[in-house]
Write a structure and sequence with these properties.
single chain, Farnesyl Diphosphate Synthase, 313 residues, 73% helix, mainly alpha, two-stranded antiparallel ribbon, 15 helices
Length: 313
């Protein structure tokens, strides 16, 4: 990459491990509180929510909260961190269904619908979507801040965010074919920014907003972190596109080579692997520049961008 992160991989690993543990504990406390939920529904929810995973999105909430001036000991950001993981898991459950990507494996295990059936998988995803907004409403005491966090998450999830991006990418063949026929870089970037980037950008913004809610950061900080989120959101999907070409199913914990098999518009299909890696490097440079602008307390943002860009699964 173009520059060297000023923090160490060990620092980042320690932060990510801590963030994952704190998020998991918050999620478990919340799910355990749902006393009237049918047992099988709670089991299906837990199968995906507590399964193996990188927990990148909740870590970004906590990391950007800290980078924007929030206290590391402040528990406020845990609610949106839990919420963003719920939305992400809901999207994975539905994405794997036969009517969508029709995947048998997720994170090296059978997908939710393979274990619990299509109907319960759909309902588990639906429940997670509702729970995400509920946890913010219950756990964020400042009503104005809670309202803004809920709005941010709704916009990132809905028709102008992740769900809209999924439609452009996988649904309605006539509409998708129209997109593929107009195979331009801006259209590809639009799909990526909506399908994958919206939730990653939202994670960053949620953390910064929590910091602002307790006296840290300002609108300029939020805009800087928004730019960072846009860059790594696009980078994350570019890496996914590359890995679908070069990685094995064992590395990814799911099938690979699917994009090329169905003629999907991706960075490698549009500009080749070398071109895709060039675009990836550009996004990492943007992330590095923002981290430097935010100062030493944001050094891990730079390291994370490099870590995500160099991941192998």
């Amino acid at each position: 990459m173009s520059s060297t992160p000023v923090s160490s991989p060990a620092d980042l690993k320690e932060f990510l491990n801590s963030a994952a543990a704190r998020t998991a504990a918050s999620l478990k406390d919340y799910v355990d509180s749902l006393k009237d939920s049918p047992a099988k529904l709670s089991e299906a929810i837990g199968y995906s929510l507590f399964g193996p995973g990188k927990r990148v999105r909740p870590a970004l909430v906590l990391l950007c909260h800290q980078a924007a001036g929030g206290s590391e000991r402040d528990e406020l950001a845990l609610a949106p961190a839990a919420a963003i993981e719920m939305i992400h898991c809901f999207s994975l459950i539905h994405d794997d269904l036969p009517a969508m990507d029709n995947d048998d494996l997720r994170r090296g295990r059978p997908t939710n619908h393979k274990v619990y059936g299509d109907a319960l998988a759909i309902l588990a995803g639906d429940a997670l979507s509702s729970m995400a907004f509920e946890v913010i409403a219950k756990k964020v005491p400042d009503a104005a801040l809670a309202s803004r966090l809920i709005l941010e998450l709704a916009l990132a999830t809905g028709p102008e965010g992740m769900i809209g991006g999924q439609v452009l990418d996988t649904c309605h063949p006539n509409e998708s074919r129209e997109v593929v026929d107009a195979a331009t870089l801006p259209k590809l970037q639009q799909i990526h920014r909506m399908k994958t980037g919206a939730l990653i950008r939202c994670s960053c913004r949620l953390g910064a907003l929590c910091a602002m809610g307790t006296g840290g950061g300002n609108e300029a900080t939020l805009q800087a972190i928004d730019t960072y989120g846009r860059a790594i959101g696009l980078a994350f999907q570019i890496v996914d596109d590359i890995l679908d070409v070069v990685a094995t199913a064992e590395q990814m914990g799911k099938k690979t080579g699917k994009d090329a098999a169905i003629g999907k518009l991706t960075y490698p299909s549009l500009v080749g692997l070398d071109g895709a890696r060039d675009f990836l490097d550009e996004q990492v440079r943007i992330a590095d520049a923002i981290a430097a602008q935010l100062g030493p307390h944001a050094a891990l943002l730079s390291q994370l961008a490099h870590d995500l860009a160099n991941r192998t699964h």
